[in-house]
Amino acid sequence: MTATRIPTWTRRHLLDVDDLSRAELEAVLDLGVELRARRAAGELSDTLRGTAVGLAFYEPSTRTRVSFELAARELGATVTDLSVAGSSVAKGESLVDTLRTLERTGVRMIVLRHAASGAPYLAARSLERAAILNAGDGTHAHPTQALLDALTLREALGSLEGARIVVVGDAVHSRVARSDLHALVRLGASVVLSGPPAWVNPFAEWPGLSVVTDLDAGLAGADAVMALRVQRERAAGGGVPSITEYVARWGLTAERLDRACPGAWLMHPGPANEGVEITAELSGDPRSLIGRQVENGVPIRMAVLSLLTEEMDRW
Ligand code: CP
Questions:
Q1: DSSP code for 88
Q2: How many domains does the chain have?
Q3: What's 236's domain CATH number?
Q4: CA 268 distance to own-chain centroid
Q5: Count of H-run helices and E-run strands, the chain
Q6: What does the pLDDT read at residue 312?
Q7: Pocket lining: 62 vs ligand 1, CB cutoff 6 Å
Q8: Ligand 1 atom at minimal distance to the Cα of residue 65
Q9: Which atom of ligand 1 is nearest to the CA of 229?
Q10: Has this prediction a pTM greater than 0.85?
């Protein structure tokens, strides 16, 4: 069986969600749902048979790397992992030279995670044949995380239209936050961003978003709350006086979540600093969607790989 074709999809790369229309976003989520059902039923087709997919993770990852690898393999692709630390990157090879090398060995789709914001855009401009899938670039974007978060929320709430979603934490250093804000606003949600002023005030002019530093006030009427990871590796401790103050004012606890709507959902893109953004107890709370976020990683990544591979046939 062939997965449903999405007539609106004409993109060669997936670099962010910021330029995807609502129809495109909804269509990717719909395809993710379809592929999840086919996977569960053992009815996936070999959409990627004959396609070599390269994983180029210049930063650590568990969820994104593993789910991209499984998604590609289960759709019939050949997968090669660059294993950056053991590659010629360690001898000083540039990003572009490394990716061109992958391309010349026959890799047609490159899943790239890099510490430099914009690295996937450079890669997309520099390659002739390979498609680039951004698996997270610096503090800029993480499009497949936004797609799986949107799918998880859409299914939990029925629709994102008019839903009040509170996003709390280190937004200024978070690629997840930027991509999630684009996707959630475009899908009709009313998004509230909360956290220490230095981490959220830069978003004050963001279209469709309100910034409320007082989390306890912002939680009123929330249908879902997403905690962001405190990016210790990027924040270098800046932006808040201390972790103790962060936990006291913006850390999510079961009691604090009670300030949201009854039955409000909890999300976290992972990996979580338990005891900082959320308590360990809250991870296992029945209101937590964190496990479902991870589960939706493979089907969403199958969806984007399928769409890009169909599009590749047209270049
Ligand atoms: N959410 C996320 O990107 O997790 P990983 O770093 O484990 O891929």
A1: G
A2: 2
A3: 3.40.50.1370
A4: 11
A5: 14, 9
A6: 79
A7: yes
A8: 8
A9: 1
A10: yes
Of 81, 50, 52, the residue nearest 64 (C-alpha): 81
* Ligand 1 centroid, distance to 294 Cα (angstroms): 9
Under DSSP, the state recorded for 92 is: T
Nearest to 166 by CA among 142, 195, 137: 195
- Region 217-242: mean pLDDT is 83
The fraction of the chain above a pLDDT of 90, given in percent, is 88
Residue 134 lies in a domain: yes
Pick the atom of ligand 1 nearest to 135's CA.
3
Q: Cα–Cα distance between 207 and 238 in angstroms, integer?
A: 26
Whether the predicted pLDDT of 297 surpasses 60 = yes
Q: Rounded to the nearest whole angstrom, what is the distance from the C-alpha of residue 64 to the centroid of ligand 1?
A: 5
- pLDDT tens column, 152-172: 999 999 999 999 999 999 999
Helices 143-157 & 22-40 angle (0-180, nearest 10)? 80
Q: Is 64 a pocket residue for ligand 1 (Cβ < 6 Å)?
A: yes
Task: Write down the pLDDT at residue 96.
Answer: 97
Q: Both 126 and 151 in a single domain?
A: no
Q: What pLDDT, on a 0 to 100 scale, did the predictor assign at position 315?
A: 65
Confidence tier at 1 by pLDDT (50, 70, 90):
very low
Each residue's pLDDT tens digit, 230-272: 877 655 556 777 889 999 999 999 999 999 999 999 999 999 9
Residue 64 Cα: closest atom of ligand 1: 8
Domain hosting residue 301, numbered range: 22-142+295-312
Backbone angles phi, psi at 168, to 5 degrees: -130, 135
Taking the centre of ligand 1 as the mean of its atom positions, its distance from the CA of residue 62, in whole angstroms, is 6
User: Is 15 within a domain?
Assistant: no
201 and 282 belong to one structural domain: yes
Pairing verdict, β 52-57 and 107-114:
parallel
Cα 43 to middle of ligand 1, angstroms: 28
Q: 89 and 169, same structural domain?
A: no
User: Separation of 128 CA from ligand 1 center, angstroms?
Assistant: 28
Closest C-alpha to 103, from 73, 83, 131, 79: 131
